Amino acid sequence: MTNKSDGIHTYNMDSGGRIATVDTATNARNVIDYAHHEIHSGSHFFHRESYDLAKNGTVDHLIVVPDTTMWPHMTIAVGNVVSQVLVTLYEDTVVSANGTADISYNRDRNSSNLPTTAIYTMPTVTSTGSAIANMTLGAGKNLPGGEARDSEEIILKQNSNYLLRVVEPNVAATVVNIVFDWYEHQNKTE
Known about the structure:
Blueprint: E1 2-5, E2 9-13, E3 19-23, H1 34-40, E4 44-53, E5 58-65, E6 70-91, E7 94-97, E8 100-101, E9 105-106, E10 118-121, E11 124-127, E12 130-149, E13 154-155, E14 160-167, E15 174-186
Antiparallel strand pairs: 1-2, 2-3, 4-9, 4-15, 5-10, 5-14, 6-12, 6-13, 6-14, 6-15, 7-11, 8-10
């Protein structure tokens, strides 16, 4: 490695001419994580929404993963303001209708890239599929709600449907916030 400095940063150049910046005060390398890199590449997307959920209400979101090798690496966050909700993620869901298409946005607002993964609200579900994750959020009637978000992404299966179901179990009406956050990446073969 060869070193160059501009007085603020030291640049380490590898044998291929690639530059790695280093903070001169701490000698720490300046890096971004891979998910952040995908934002800069224009392949990181999100969909978020907030809605009222009635007592005994259910809201379903269908995630449709196409039959391509651009696999979505996704995190899902769910929160409720008061009451309690049951949240379940199902894999291999069967539907007779996808529901209403939700709008997803590219995190790089300068990019025209569109996601291959699609999200829908209130599909007509024939079979929920297999539950792969579930949780209860909130403490009960007139008590604070809760929030959960996986810190690690899940790589969704190619050519599959997923169902995120949020149910209010007869406690009290609430407001629910959901965030789907993902990038699409073709896995390397090595």
